[in-house]
Amino acid sequence: MDEWRWMDAGALGAGIGAGEIDPVDLFETFRAAIEAHEHASRIYARTTFERGRAEAEAAALRAKRGARRSALDGVPVSWKDLFDTAGVATEAGSKLLEGRVPEHDAEVLRNATAAGLVCLGKTHMSELAFSGLGLNPMTATPPCVNDEAAVPGGSSSGAAASVAFGLAAAAVGSDTGGSVRVPSAWNDLVGLKTTHGRVSNAGVVPLAERFDTVGPLCRSVGDCALMLAALEGGKAADLAGAEGLAGRRFAALRTIVMDDLRDGPAAAYAEALERLRAAGAEIVEIDAPEIEGPMGQAGILYTTEAWGIWGDVIAEKGDVMFAPIRKRFEAGQDVAGAAYVAAWRRLDAARRDWAARAAAFDAVLCPTVPSLPPDAARLMEDGPYYVTENLLALRNTRVGNLMGLPVVTLPTGAKSCGISLMGAALGEARLMRVAAAAETALAG
Fold first, then answer.
1. Which pTM value belongs to this model?
2. Would you say residue 392 has pLDDT above 90?
3. pLDDT given for residue 304 in this prediction
4. DSSP β-ladder status, 190-193 and 213-218
5. Active-site residue identified among 179, 184, 371, 420
6. Percent of the chain having pLDDT more than 90?
7. Known catalytic membership, residue 155
8. How much is the pLDDT for 241?
9. CA 419 → CA 188, 218, 415, distances in Å?
10. Nearest-CA neighbor of 255 among 286, 221, 215?
11. CA distances from residue 327 to 314, 315, 397 in whole angstroms, order as listed
């Protein structure tokens, strides 16, 4: 049964449907693995085994009756600790919210439960989701699967670790500036950042509501499609007929995302492009000068909104926060309203220019993260290094958030190095079909 921990969520669901896997046995396999794992307390903020057992038992009864609710009915998953869970503390990785126990599940958790998914528990995260590194000395810093002394990426740090270490079949995270994709890339997973507004944020602790999105961290593109359907309460995109890459046109973005690229990610990205070309894809290098202004003003856009949401609480109790995170929030407190409005107007114009430029391509490519996972101890000891590494980790992923796009990050085959495919707003189904073909090419 231990092999179940490393299977795709979709394969586990298919096994349940075929009568080969009992949902209760599956739940108990993950439960036992969590209880025995040396890093479990650094990955899970709290478990929900009583709930999970009951959900697994109900899924087993449905399977016996031929009344399964979805392809993932009975599959155990983890949830980032900013999704409200009725009767269970939801603290978003911050002492500011210590003891916060919501009365209702977040809407996406309700949808997933209705689809039969089994809730294993809540995973650790960067404080209030405001860091791409996954370092959180206030609660816990999960390990990176490729280097346990390094950070795993954030802010969905425990979410990625739960899947990478075989402690969940899939995970649910959030992405405001890269928080699904950075930890997915650094832990060799597939991550889906959804279009803003597509998946409900009701019952999700906010960071910057005009950028906050919900998305899955998984072992495959197929799992991402199934998880997205569960989160939405809808039907999964059909990837069975996904064509190969012959005739596909990709744009390889050069603007900003290739600057200061570290050696490992640079080599992995170049090799990935060659594999895509060998599979028949046409790749055209492009510049997109329209993103330069918004990327330079991202601090205004993010920190102003984050301070608007959390400023009063931080002003009152900010001494319980990790100082670098508090400083990021405080950067937004003196931004003039006129500057914020002007930044959004420029961003809206840039989005129109980007959409016109990208329309000729099946996806726009870039390295997911320009750097490799940095050492956790050094981040704690070296303040300037923390700032530099955090900003670099989130730089490339931020393009997708600013332009309002769905994005899939795929493993390249090199440890902790991902490649991103950016699609058109609300074009998740098409993007995942293209990404599924790319996934096959990169695995070959």
1. 0.98
2. yes
3. 98
4. antiparallel
5. 179
6. 99
7. yes
8. 67
9. 11, 15, 12
10. 286
11. 10, 12, 22
Q: If you compute the radius of gyration of the chain from its CA atoms, what whole number of angstroms results? A: 20
pLDDT digits (tens, 9 = 90+) for 169-215: 999 999 999 999 999 999 999 999 999 999 999 999 999 999 999 99
Within 10 angstroms of residue 429's Cβ, the number of other Cβ atoms is: 16
- pLDDT of 261-296, one tens digit each? 999 999 999 999 999 999 999 999 999 999 999 999
CA distance 116 to 57: 11
Nearest alpha-carbon partner for 126 in 333, 351, 390: 390
Residue 304, C-beta contacts closer than 8 angstroms, at least 6 positions apart: 332, 335, 340
Does 299 have pLDDT greater than 90? Answer: yes
- Mean pLDDT rounded to a whole number for the chain: 98
Least confident window among 239-243, 299-303, 424-428: 239-243
71 CB-contact burial (10 Å; exposed 0-12 / middle 13-18 / buried 19+): buried
Q: How far apart are CA 341 and CA 311, in angstroms?
A: 19
Q: Which pairing describes strands 213-218 and 171-175: parallel, antiparallel, or unpaired?
A: antiparallel
Tokens coding 302: 């993010």
Catalytic residue among 70, 78, 80, 416: 80
Per-residue pLDDT, averaged over 106-116, amounts to: 98
Structure-block tokens of residue 16: 């349940």
Answer yes or no: 95 catalytic.
no
- What token pair was written down for 198? 């597509």
The single residue of 155, 174, 220, 420 carrying the catalytic annotation is 155
Instruction: Please say if 80 is a catalytic residue.
Output: yes
Domains assigned to the chain: 2-232 (3.90.1300.10), 249-288+347-427 (no CATH)
